[in-house]
Design a protein that fits this description.
four-stranded mixed β-sheet, 4 strands, alpha+beta
């Protein structure tokens, strides 16, 4: 298998899963600014997005949630990393995985793209403040949800934690402190 990823992006969640699960997989770092492995990536994924997983049978799989599920369930067969189909525990992991992918991740995108949305510096600042307000609302929700648990769904590190860990790391880039969110801060330190 080959996994195309790019450092600092959400595709790092899949790299974390590969490492945590001990999966034999060739990791291929893509850099658009250096034109590193871009053409190779696009030969498998015309959209040129990461993660892109090229499976041993030649099939290609994209999108963090799909790749994470495949790695945990099909390759590693690890029920702690992704519980069995039909259980509440699995649904809970998938619920948090969807939250991170659909809500939390998306909240950061607005701030990262403020310069693309407006050339006006005042407008860019307003966009960034709007995004930070949404992020802080999600941090408050995460803080309450984490409570005394070890990880987002309980005592086991799961595919949801792979993704959440990466996105929480982006708080540093936006200079969003976690001191007001003690459970999140503890989680980040432990992860």
């Amino acid at each position: 298998m080959k996994l195309y990823y790019s450092g600092g992006t959400s595709s790092m969640s899949c790299v974390i899963a590969v490492e945590e699960l001990g999966i034999k997989c060739e990791l291929i770092d893509v850099s658009w600014s250096k034109n590193q492995n871009v053409a190779e990536l696009e030969s498998f994924n015309p959209l040129g997005t990461v993660p892109t997983l090229v499976m041993d049978d030649g099939n290609t799989l994209t999108q963090n949630t799909a790749v994470l599920e495949y790695l945990a369930e099909v390759v590693a067969k690890d029920a702690k990393f992704l519980p069995k189909v039909g259980t509440y525990e699995r649904l809970n992991v998938l619920r948090w995985l969807a939250f991170v992918a659909s809500d939390f991740h998306k909240a950061f995108t607005v701030s990262f793209r403020a310069e693309d949305m407006s050339s006006d510096k005042t407008a860019q600042g307003q966009i960034e403040q709007f995004a930070k307000g949404n992020i802080q609302g999600y941090l408050k929700h995460l803080n309450a949800s984490l409570g005394g648990e070890g990880f987002i769904t309980g005592p086991n590190f799961t595919v949801a934690d792979c993704y959440l860990t990466v996105i929480l790391g982006w708080c540093d880039w936006l200079e969003i402190g976690l001191s007001d969110y003690s459970n999140v801060e503890r989680y980040v330190e432990a992860a």
